């Protein structure tokens, strides 16, 4: 129940953020580069999720969850008081750290507490409270926006998180203390007091070095640097840095390429516990499942990034109405997850749901091409969103359970992190792609469709300014926005086809098989060893 409460608040804040972001970025004169917020979030999650996964194994779930929730709460205070867009991004960085820890520990806890047959259903039940967040959060956010109190939307999130986090943190620490006492008692029986004293006196420096090696801090830094330096110019080159030929853009891209090369070399030759455990298991199922979820999240991040802005401008929809039009996807996603979790428990299979889900996803995204035209009905928008939501709902739980079930239970946290890492990488790429396409194409379409003299920068930075243009210019802006949105939908259809191909190599097995049989079906036992282990 305590985990469910955190799930509800997490979904609440996510829907509040979704609703207020177009307004906030318009107030801060940065709506055209709103994708930077999600790009920063997901780039950091790519590295932070596996790092938190390893730390939770080393120190315990309670420590990681407590730290994550504290940062989660602090981030909303920073965003609520942000005087400009750059400070808002700073708050988003802290948000990414806190959110990443909570995002990875919850599925690990569910995996720890359930067997393979019930795991899919429990993962789905964990997400059920999100429906209430989807229904109520846009109303609350819309009311705050109408009163000009968007900062309180962030402030309320911090209060709700604090109130719901206390019971869960107390329970986790209670279990943690009991487990530590039990382990300490067993350890005292197995070895003498002198040996225990010797272990406790191990130098602080050696402990720090050991932890940094375990979480592969050097590899994480190279990866974050590479992603930031390559992806951010795609959005900022033309909007803030003076074009692709400017010194800052070229220098950033070159530095990013160098960072990626150094990351690859470090992971290949230097890392004891690589960030991306590509060779950890003989089974390739975790890798293919992660690639499949990468494509799914890439679609949602790219094709949804500017959807609320587009709906508010093209249909003059309120922030709450625009959010409800978009939320058909998430609502059907959660409901379908629950149904699929039950069917997996009932029939002990998962693979048919992956293939059916891919078909629904391609159909839904394909329908978005005509559904998102300025002249289409609101019902058509909701239908296309809902079909895509059904598809992703059929895919998500089976892919996660397939990845978790193909490795030994001791590797549960690592494979869960790899799966979520794939999703975060897809979201980072998708957000960047959306920002790059939006800013690269919109100027040309504005010149083509908007008559007379106009201020391009004000139009793309402020929704209210765009809506209040003279009728002929407003209609031209709507047409220009619609053309760019259509291109993003076409790209998403192409990416959706990759989801099917990535699901084909995943080895099939029954959910009622033993762990040993499942691992054998997925190409054998886990063979991961560190470089130090390999020498012994």
Automatic annotation (TrEMBL):
<keyword id="KW-1133">Transmembrane helix</keyword>
<feature type="transmembrane region" description="Helical">
    <location>
        <begin position="244"/>
        <end position="266"/>
    </location>
</feature>
<dbReference type="InterPro" id="IPR036259">
    <property type="entry name" value="MFS_trans_sf"/>
</dbReference>
<dbReference type="GO" id="GO:0005886">
    <property type="term" value="C:plasma membrane"/>
</dbReference>
<feature type="transmembrane region" description="Helical">
    <location>
        <begin position="379"/>
        <end position="402"/>
    </location>
</feature>
<feature type="transmembrane region" description="Helical">
    <location>
        <begin position="64"/>
        <end position="82"/>
    </location>
</feature>
<feature type="domain" description="Major facilitator superfamily (MFS) profile">
    <location>
        <begin position="1"/>
        <end position="507"/>
    </location>
</feature>
<dbReference type="InterPro" id="IPR011701">
    <property type="entry name" value="MFS"/>
</dbReference>
<dbReference type="InterPro" id="IPR020846">
    <property type="entry name" value="MFS_dom"/>
</dbReference>
<keyword id="KW-0812">Transmembrane</keyword>
<feature type="transmembrane region" description="Helical">
    <location>
        <begin position="353"/>
        <end position="373"/>
    </location>
</feature>
<feature type="transmembrane region" description="Helical">
    <location>
        <begin position="33"/>
        <end position="52"/>
    </location>
</feature>
<dbReference type="GO" id="GO:0022857">
    <property type="term" value="F:transmembrane transporter activity"/>
</dbReference>
<keyword id="KW-0472">Membrane</keyword>
<dbReference type="Pfam" id="PF07690">
    <property type="entry name" value="MFS_1"/>
</dbReference>
<protein>
    <recommendedName>
        <fullName>Major facilitator superfamily (MFS) profile domain-containing protein</fullName>
    </recommendedName>
</protein>
<feature type="transmembrane region" description="Helical">
    <location>
        <begin position="152"/>
        <end position="175"/>
    </location>
</feature>
<feature type="transmembrane region" description="Helical">
    <location>
        <begin position="124"/>
        <end position="146"/>
    </location>
</feature>
<feature type="transmembrane region" description="Helical">
    <location>
        <begin position="208"/>
        <end position="232"/>
    </location>
</feature>
<feature type="transmembrane region" description="Helical">
    <location>
        <begin position="94"/>
        <end position="112"/>
    </location>
</feature>
<feature type="transmembrane region" description="Helical">
    <location>
        <begin position="414"/>
        <end position="438"/>
    </location>
</feature>
<feature type="transmembrane region" description="Helical">
    <location>
        <begin position="487"/>
        <end position="506"/>
    </location>
</feature>
């Amino acid at each position: 129940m305590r985990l469910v409460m955190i799930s509800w608040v997490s979904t609440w804040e996510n829907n509040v953020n979704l609703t207020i972001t177009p307004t906030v970025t318009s107030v801060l004169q940065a709506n055209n580069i709103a994708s930077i917020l999600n790009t920063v979030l997901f780039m950091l999650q790519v590295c932070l999720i596996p790092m938190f996964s390893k730390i939770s194994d080393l120190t315990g779930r309670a420590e990681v969850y407590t730290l994550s929730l504290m940062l989660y709460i602090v981030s909303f205070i920073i965003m609520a008081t942000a005087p400009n867009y750059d400070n808002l991004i700073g708050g988003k960085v802290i948000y990414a750290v806190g959110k990443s820890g909570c995002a990875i520990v919850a599925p690990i806890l569910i995996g720890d507490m359930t067997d393979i047959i019930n795991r899919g259903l429990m993962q789905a039940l964990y997400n059920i409270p999100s429906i209430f967040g989807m229904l109520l959060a846009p109303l609350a956010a819309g009311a705050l926006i109408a009163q000009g109190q968007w900062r309180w939307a962030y402030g309320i999130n911090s209060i709700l998180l604090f109130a719901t986090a206390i019971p869960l943190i107390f329970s986790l620490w209670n279990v943690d203390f009991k487990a530590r006492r039990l382990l300490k008692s067993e350890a005292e029986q197995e070895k003498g007091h002198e040996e225990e004293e010797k272990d406790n006196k191990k130098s602080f420096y050696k402990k720090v070095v050991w932890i940094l090696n375990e979480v592969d801090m050097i590899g994480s830094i190279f990866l974050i640097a590479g992603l930031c330096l390559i992806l951010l110019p795609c959005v900022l080159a033309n909007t803030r840095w003076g074009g692709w030929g400017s010194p800052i853009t070229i220098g950033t891209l070159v530095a990013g390429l160098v960072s990626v090369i150094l990351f690859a070399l470090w992971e290949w030759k230097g890392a004891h516990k690589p960030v991306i455990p590509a060779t950890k298991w003989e089974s390739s199922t975790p890798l293919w499942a992660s690639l499949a979820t990468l494509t799914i999240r890439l679609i949602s991040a790219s094709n949804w990034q500017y959807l609320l802005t587009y709906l508010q401008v093209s249909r003059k929809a309120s922030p709450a109405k625009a959010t409800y039009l978009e939320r058909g996807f998430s609502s059907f996603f959660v409901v379908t997850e629950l149904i699929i979790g039950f069917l997996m428990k009932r029939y002990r299979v998962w693979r048919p749901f992956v293939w059916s889900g891919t078909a629904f996803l391609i159909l839904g995204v394909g329908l978005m091409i005509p559904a998102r035209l300025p002249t289409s009905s609101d019902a058509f928008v909701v239908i296309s969103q809902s079909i895509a939501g059904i598809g992703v709902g059929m895919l998500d739980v089976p892919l996660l359970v397939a990845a978790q079930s193909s490795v030994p239970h001791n590797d549960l946290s690592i494979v869960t992190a790899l799966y979520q890492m794939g999703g975060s990488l897809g979201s980072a790429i998708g957000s960047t792609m959306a920002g790059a396409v939006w800013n690269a194409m919109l100027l040309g379409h504005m010149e083509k469709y908007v008559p007379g003299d106009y201020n391009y920068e004000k139009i793309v930075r402020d929704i209210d300014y765009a809506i209040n243009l003279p009728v002929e210019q407003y209609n031209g802006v709507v047409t220009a926005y619609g053309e760019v949105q259509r291109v993003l939908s076409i790209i998403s259809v192409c990416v959706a086809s990759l989801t099917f191909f990535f699901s084909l190599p995943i080895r099939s097995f029954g959910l009622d098989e033993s762990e040993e049989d499942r691992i054998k079906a997925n190409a054998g036992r886990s063979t991961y060893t560190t470089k130090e282990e390999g020498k012994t």
